[in-house]
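Weekly sync, protein design subgroup
Attendees: M.S., D.O., the rotation student, P.L. (late)

Item 1: inverse folding check
M.S. brought a backbone from last month's batch and wanted to see whether the design step gives back something sensible before we order anything. D.O. pointed out we never logged the input encoding, so this time it goes straight into the notes. Structure tokens as presented (146 positions):
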């Protein structure tokens, strides 16, 4: 399965991936209308510290703690091995947020349900997620490393 991997040695800490993620998941075709003057809620987060920058996103674990701990059954693995969230089933208990060892699940914009990276499966147009496609330094890649 293809996953998003981060090459932290190339990450500049520009946070462009966060904006591209928020835009891709906004449902609005114009980036300015989607993001200007608004607080963004990306499904990928850039961590900065001591000169090191890296993007944190869902790892789509082989044996995911988030799926095991979801009391509502909102998190599951699909046939390709991707960890998916059904926001219609999510009750907003945030147990998944607490158990994710990577900090890759977070409250959604409305604060009532959880959200996570789903590899832009709902909005992918060009074969790779926006955070990968528009990373200016190619610090984020979308590949199958077996």
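Designed sequence read out in the meeting:
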């Amino acid at each position: 399965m293809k996953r998003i991997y981060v090459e932290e040695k190339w990450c500049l800490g520009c946070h462009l991936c966060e904006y591209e993620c928020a835009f891709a998941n906004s449902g609005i075709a114009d980036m300015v209308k989607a993001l200007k003057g608004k607080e963004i809620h990306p499904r990928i987060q850039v961590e900065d510290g001591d000169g090191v920058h890296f993007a944190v996103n869902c790892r789509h674990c082989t044996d995911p703690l988030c799926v095991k701990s979801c009391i509502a059954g909102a998190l599951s693995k699909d046939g390709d091995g991707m960890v998916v969230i059904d926001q219609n089933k999510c009750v907003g208990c945030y147990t998944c947020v607490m158990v994710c060892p990577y900090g890759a699940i977070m409250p959604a914009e409305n604060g009532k349900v959880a959200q996570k990276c789903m590899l832009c499966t709902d909005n992918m147009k060009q074969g790779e997620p926006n955070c990968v496609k528009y990373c200016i330094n190619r610090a984020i890649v979308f590949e199958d490393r077996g």
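Discussion: The helical segments are 16-24, 31-35, 65-69, 95-99, 130-133. The first strand starts at residue 3 and ends at 6.
Action: P.L. to compare against the previous round before Friday.
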